Amino acid sequence: MDGTAKPGATPITLDRLRKVYPDGTVAVDELSLDVDGGDVTVLIGPSGCGKSTVLRMVNRLIEPSGGRVLVGGEDVTRADPVRLRRTIGYVIQNVGLFPHQTVRTNVGTVPRMLGWDRRRIAERTDELLELVGLPPGQYSGRYPHELSGGQRQRVGFARALAADPVVLLMDEPFSAVDPINRGRLQDEFLRLREAVRKTTILVTHDLHEAVKLGDRIAVLSDHAHLEQYATPAELLAKPANEFAERFVGEDRGIMRLSVTPIPRARLRPAAEAGDDAPRVPAGATLREAFGAMLAAGNGAVVVTDDGAPIGALTAADVQVLLAESNPAPPSLR
Ligand SMILES: Nc1ncnc2c1ncn2[C@@H]1O[C@H](COP(=O)(O)OP(=O)(O)OP(=O)(O)O)[C@@H](O)[C@H]1O
């Protein structure tokens, strides 16, 4: 979440990107956006504002009417579209797995097109199924209809990663899954990101998902007009304008808890928390601290570093910390 480019990772630049459909609909009107190598940028905005159109211009499933898309500095409109799509992983809602092919065959689709030998494909497929939490011994011979929705989504993710693409595009990847499994898949996505750091553009209409998964969030209004491009913490603390403010909505205060780390400098002496207080590690967020208080029915937590207490935080402290960095407009006070 530091917004700096990761060595070796591929940046994406959208430069005055534009799409006018043949019927005259201006879906995207000159969108410019930089995604640092290795980062996840989330596109969020109301239905029909052009999110999917933007995403599909990056891998040229849709041809731009104007502007440029640079992937690693290379203009994709000059690249061979078939080769391009092999270097860009694409994950969509409901996955689009081939129903009459096994999990193994589905995951190996792009490596087969690239002419990898059978053994390399088999090894790669096993490795990826393991990575997405579907042990190949149990799952690789199954057909899509023999899997749950969440499992199918994981297969789709494994398939997108199979040929080690330079970037990943994800269009509402978790929205067809029930809320509990969606949370699990999001957690897994975060875990996978540590293992395979790909520059990613993810489309969602779910602000919680954007805040949880994004290094940066692009808030779009109609015609993919960029209202704000900021880290989740910045967006929640300082919506740039009325549109962004309305979009992040009233529970932004609660969401901000999850992006605000416990400030060490503001801890009270550990003894103030009392003997029964739950413990949270120093790297935790205010939300985790507050959650621990609620779960334990205690008004304070002891904050630890390597297991040793370094201070305490009370529920009132959490409230003060949020209010300090969140000058709410008069209407919301
Ligand atoms: N093939 C097409 N021809 C004409 N207009 C289109 C076409 N595809 C999409 N549009 C229009 O372009 C605009 C942007 O559509 P797009 O699917 O990119 O929006 P979106 O933000 O992804 O929407 P949602 O969140 O509902 O999926 C909409 O007004 C849509 O009706």
Q: How many individual domains?
A: 2
Mean pLDDT: 86
Q: Counting H and I runs of at least 4 residues, what is the number of helices?
A: 14
Written as H for each helix and E for each strand, in order along the chain, the element string is EEEHEEHEHHHHHEHEHEEHHHEHEEH
CATH topology of the largest domain: Rossmann fold
Residues in helix, %: 25-40%
* End-to-end distance: 30 Å
Quantity of strands, as a count? 13
SS class:
alpha/beta
Biggest sheet, strands in spatial order?
6-7-8-3-9-10
Going by CATH, the homologous superfamily of the largest domain would be P-loop containing nucleotide triphosphate hydrolases
Approximately what portion of the residues adopt beta-strand conformation?
15-25%
Global morphology: globular
Uncertain ranges: 327-333
The largest β sheet comes out as: 6 strands, mixed
What small molecules are bound in this structure? Answer: adenosine-5'-triphosphate
Supply Rg.
22 Å
CATH architecture title of the largest domain: 3-Layer(aba) Sandwich
CATH class of the largest domain: Alpha Beta
